Each structure stands twice: as C-alpha cells, then as structure tokens.
Automatic annotation (TrEMBL):
Organism: Deinococcus aerolatus
Start and end residues of each AB hydrolase-1 domain: 4-227
Top-level taxon of origin: Bacteria
Name of the protein in its database record: Hydrolase
Presence of keyword Nuclease: no
InterPro entries (UniProt xref): AB_hydrolase_1, AB_hydrolase_fold, AB_hydrolase_sf
Lineage: Bacteria, Thermotogati, Deinococcota, Deinococci, Deinococcales
Key words, A-Z: Hydrolase
A GO molecular function held by the record: hydrolase activity
Length: 236
C-alpha cells in the first residue's frame, strides 16, 4: 500500500485532518510556521521554501514514494513538491487548492487576512466567513489555537508572498495522477478559479465537485474527503 501524507492549508495545522484520520491510516504533517513547526517559519517564506521543507520531512520518514493529499495553501506547495521531486510523489489529491497562479484576493482581503494573526476574534470571524457547514466546537477551537500559535512571519508571508507567486512555469512535465476535490460553494477559492487555474492546466486530472461545504472541506465534509482518498487508494 502506498503511504499517504496529508498536508494542511494556510493558518491551520495537521489537526485539520483529525476527522479524516478517524477513518484511514495516514501521516499528517505541519508546514514550517504552523502547528508544531511554528518555530520554523521565517519572514518572506515562499512556496519553494515550504516545498523543500516538506521534501526533507518525506525523505527523513523514508518509505516513499507517497500519495499526497493537500488542502488549500498546501495544494500549491504539493504541486511544487511534485514537480521538484517527482521521485517522492506518486499521486496528488488536491482539496480546494490554492492555484499555481496568484490567488485572486483584493487588497482589503489581504489586509484582513494579514491582520488576523494572533487576534482571537478576527480568527473566529475569518473561519466563520469561509465555512458553510458548522464545524464541531472542538475543531473550531483548534483552528483558533492554531491561528494564535502560528509564526507571525510565516502568517504574513502567505498573503504577501506565497499566495502572490506564479509557479505555473515551474510545473512543466508534471506527469502523475491528480484528483481535485472542490466545493461549488467555497467562498475563499471559487469554483471558477479551480476550473480556470487548476483543472484547465491539467486536463487529465479528475475533478470531484461537491456542494454545501465551504473552504474547510476536511472539517466540514470529512466523509467526502475520506471516501475520495479510499477510492483513489483502490484505483489500479
């Protein structure tokens, strides 16, 4: 069985996968600046920085190549990782991924996101705004906790640097199975962005659209994620 690694999105940590991990065996990791890797965050960190850190973690763990499921910011990191280190990755499952091109956020939205770091009330508003399904109280509290302990440098680097990067020119030759799970009701990364900036670049990718969930699909609809990961594992 090919080992599965789960990569979180912006501001969260490996705990965003908690509900999914109740139904399958996988390793969830923290990207630099977040979760238990908060101290590894640095000013101006790029997608490449995060991809290289993830590559190092996978090499240290051994036993690859890996299937990688990645959410939001983690999706952009996983794409760069797969292009840079194809020997480490056998398959990608991208969940509401940030596109390889600059993420469409207007300046006020970037400023609001930047200012939410370390602000309990602002974090609560942010997560309410990007979800469409109730998130269990324990999980919502963990989202807030993750936002409070994240590295300030890594936090502001995403709206200021990483989300603005265009890495599409660095992904040529990406040749592996790709599945993209997204919500038609995602208020953070629109389905139009997914179709135009992700699916259109990889016509061979399998698209799985759901409804009713917002951006935090691993917490809002963990069953959809679990079923997809089980199905891709069983696919020949």
């Amino acid at each position: 069985m090919t080992p599965l690694v789960l990569v979180h999105g912006f501001g969260t940590s490996r705990h965003v996968w908690r509900r999914v991990l109740e139904g399958l065996e996988a390793q969830a990791v923290d990207l630099p600046g977040f979760g238990d890797a908060a101290d590894a965050g640095k000013a101006g960190q790029t997608v490449e920085d995060m991809a290289q850190a993830l590559a190092g973690a996978l090499r240290e763990a051994g036993g690859g190549p890996y299937r990688v499921a990645a959410h939001s910011m983690g999706g952009k990191v996983a794409l760069r990782l797969a292009a840079r280190h194809p020997e480490l990755i056998s398959e990608l499952v991208l969940i509401a991924p940030s596109p390889p091109t600059p993420e469409p956020m207007d300046p006020p939205a970037r400023a609001t996101l930047r200012a939410a770091h370390g602000d309990r009330a602002a974090l609560g508003t942010q997560y309410h705004d990007i979800t469409r399904q109730p998130v269990p109280e324990q999980d919502f509290a963990h989202l807030i906790s993750d936002g409070l302990r994240a590295s300030h440098d890594a936090w502001v680097a995403w709206p200021d640097v990483g989300s603005r990067e265009d890495i599409s020119g660095q992904l040529g030759g990406l040749d592996l199975p790709i599945t993209v799970l997204y919500s038609e009701d995602d208020p953070a990364i629109s389905p139009g962005t997914i179709r135009a900036e992700v699916l259109a670049r990889w016509p061979q990718a399998r698209a799985v659209a759901i409804r009713g969930s917002g951006h935090l699909i691993p917490l809002e609809d963990p069953q959809a994620v679990l079923e997809l990961l089980q199905a891709t594992e069983e696919r020949p």
